[in-house]
Structure formats: structure tokens, C-alpha cells
Amino acid sequence: MINDLWYKNAVIYCLSVETFMDANGDGVGDFQGLMRRLDYLSGLGVTAIWLMPFQTSPGRDDGYDVSDYYNVDPRYGSLGDFVEFTHGAKQRGIRVLIDLVINHTSKDHPWFEDARSDPHSRYRDWYVWSDKKPANANHGMVFPGVQKTTWTYDEKTKAYYFHRFYDHQPDLNTSNPEVQAEILKIMGFWIQLGVSGFRMDAAPFIIATKGAAVTKPVEQFDMLRKFREFLQWRLGDSIVLAEANILPKDNFEYFGDDGDRMQMMFNFQVNQTLFYALATADTRPLKKAMEATKPRPATAQWGLFLRNHDELDLGRLTDKQRDAVFAAFGPEKGMQLYDRGIRRRLAPMLGGDRRRIELAYSLLFSLPGTPVIRYGDEIGMGDDLCLPERNCARTPMQWSTEPEGGFTKSAKPVSPVIKDGPYGFEHINVAVQRRDPNSLLNWTERMIRMRKEAPEIGWGDFSVVDTGDDGVLALRYDWRGNSVLILHNLHPHPTEVTFDPDVGELGRLLIDIADGASSEADDKGRHTVMLDAYGYRWYRVGGLDYLLRRKDI
User: Could you give the residue numbers annotated as active site?
Assistant: First the structure.
């Protein structure tokens, strides 16, 4: 069971081929460069890589505008290079997940070009058309403030086409059985080339009904079951990690009551309340979000993250909560995006404060689910707010103090490397941090190892332990007769807390597996612990002989 559900205790690393390393010298990252960095990723301890889009694309939206689902963009290499990469990852025990961008295509895709050419084209019904501009065309934009409409007029066809995202990304008519059959072919193709699963982009939009007459889209959840059945028929332990920013009441619709739909989903509810907790030292909404998303099928898992390639979406918070996060982490208008989020990377959001960065990542690794790390966050990379929209947080990886941060030999990378200020590659890079035992990089490696050695978090059940202080979060995980208890102080000052682990006699001894400190209970079975400002403790309950006590079932 543990091998089949490998994602339960995984650590996933998200990267873009375009920004990781350029071996060809043309200023764009490629699969050859990524191959050369697999040993770095293996040493970091990650168990899976999530690759952002690399298929053929005109590149108007960082590859999310696909024009050929069955090929690698020539800028990144060839299909042969991709297979070499997946083979190299497999040799190092690393699985590969890729983005599945099937809500829309590029307007340059041959399907759309053919659909425009003739109203009787076989691809005409693969997209969504209207002879007149629908009355609700100015509603439902994914990028408000940048998008003006969801329906755009096409001169060639004399009709409007639907696009939930940018106007150069026409939506596929995913209700069409032929489109669904093609999606299965796409997944089967990449599975055959060594992929272990997919991150499904914009899952709610994929399964929603579309059309000029649709005023309230209806989700077609059976579509998710079809995807799941096909994948597990082709490769038994393959998975889909769905991007679905939904309310907790809808979680089971995506996971399936019997766990027969999506294996994983990103937990946006926890992500947003986590940043509110970091901004205010108030963990109450975070606890509420964890409890609300706790019920799930036994085979399902949450993907937990801090920052990703998009903006930090705060749309699920109340106006007051969102204003508090904006004030703390994105007070300037240029730091905000789409009237709902923050477009900065984690380190500058936290003011470069090592204590707060460690606290945030310790929280990520200890929340119920599987941690997903964004490339460069292990060294504290910054952002370039001069770049438009989300590109500010998509700058090349900073490897060394060599020109262009060791990313490329080209003097003009397509995406500029951060050079100036405290987050420039001269100050923040892998090579310098590799040689510093106290660096953030080496701390992250140790944290990943510690997280992988605590399967209770990925597999077990959690309980919130009362500390009497809303600024201190205490979580206990129980699995197969063992428990871990993890404390986090979100206050900017030292805080003392007293608590009862509530696990019987074993709870009298707590061993900190991060620094070796221990705590012994008083006569009433309660522990009193002093936490530094932004401090944390990872405790093994009952001592370090837990492996001898672990039950087989």
C-alpha cells in the first residue's frame, strides 16, 4: 500500500525547464541542462518533480498556450531529450509529473486554425462558439484587470469564441466526447514516455459546461473518474494532482466519495489562511481550514504549498483578512495582482528574515498533506517586480556567482536573471550556500530528510493540541502506534506554552528531532516549553525507539 500511494509521503519540487539551466547557450533553459541538475535535486531529497509546460507553444503565457500536445518545444530540446530526462530521474528514484493544460489551447493550434477555416470542420465543435456576443461576456475572467472579456470576435469565422483565460487561449469544448478521447490519448502518450502523473491545470473549468447559453456552469464530475480510470489502467501508481480552488464542501466531488477521482488536490483554503496566520499570528482561521478539509477518502491527499508560479490568491479570505495580508506582505500596488493576490516570492514577502522563512517552511512540511516546493525557494530567491504580471517570480535559477548566475553562457537570457539588490545572484546562489553548513539550502535539505522520516504526517490523522495561545500552533499526528507533535510560534517574541500531548504514558517524554532537545512532563502530564520568536519544535512522542514500536498495520 505504501508503494502504491507513494504521493502520501512525498516531497514535490516544482520547476520550469525554461528557467532551470541552459546547456545550449541560447538563453533558454532546456532538458539537457535539467539533466545536469538531477543530481542536485536528488541531493536535495525531493521524491518527485512537477514540470511546468514544455510542449510546443508560441510562448504568450509561459507555455500554458499549447500548440502541439505531442511534442517538446524546440527551445527546450526534443522528445529524445525528454525521455533521457525521465530515465535519469527514474534512476535517481525521482518521479516526474507534468502539467496537463487541457482547458484551452493556443489560438495557433492546428485544431483551432482548422475550426476557423470551415464551419463544417471536424474540429469546429472542439471549441465553443456563439454567433452573438453573450450578455455575460464581461463576467468570469480569470485575470480581472488584464482581461476585458471571455468572448472574442473572430473575423474569419464571423463568430465569437469562448476563452476563460486570455483571448489567445480559446477554450476546448471538454463536454465533447471526441475532445475527451483526445485528452486520454495525450495522457497515455506522456505516460508511455516515463511520466508518473499530471498536475491538472484549472480542473474546475475543464469539467464545467460551457456555451453562450450557460449562465451557471455545471461541473461534470464523471469526467474526472474517466481520467482516473484510464491512467490507472495504463500505469497503476500514476496520479493526478488537481488545481482546484474550491470550497471544502465540494472536496469529495473532486476526490470522489470512494476515492475514485483525483488522487491529490492543492489545498488553497489552508494556503490562504496560513498566510493570514503568518501576517497576524492568529491561527484560528488556519485551524478552521484544516478541520474543514480534514475529511477525505483514505487514498486521497492534499498538496500543500507556500508560493507557486502564480499570484498568491487571497480570494477566499474575508475583506478584513485580505487587507491584513496585503498590509504585511504586499502593501504597494505593484506587488498586487488581479485585485485578489500578491505576486511576490516568499523570501522578500517575509523581509528576508531567516527566522520567518524557516518558520514558514517548517509549517509547510508539518501541515497535513504533501509539501510542494517552488524552485529557488530553498535558497531564498527573490523577485523582479519590474517584470509584468506573474513573470516577476519566474526568473532563472541562481546557481553561482558566475555571469548570469550560472544559468546560461548567453549574455542575454530570455528571462533576465536577478542581478541587483540583496536577492541578486551574487548574494543568493546554490554554490555559496552549498559550502555554508548554516545556509538556508542545507537547512532545507535537513528539513526534507526529517519530513520524509515522519510518515505520520503524510499517512496519519492529526489533532490540534490546545496551547492556550492562538499565536502558537500545536499539531499531533498519530499513525501505527507512533506520534509526532510539532509546535510553531508565530509571534515576533518568545512565548512560553503549557500543553498536554494527550497520548497517555508515552506523552511524558518528547524528543526534539530537529535539535535534540527534550521535554519531560510534570506530575500532571503537562509540558511547559519556551519557544523563541518565530520558533518551532518537532517532537517525537515517547522517545527515539519509535521504529521498534511501529505497528505493521
Answer: 201, 243
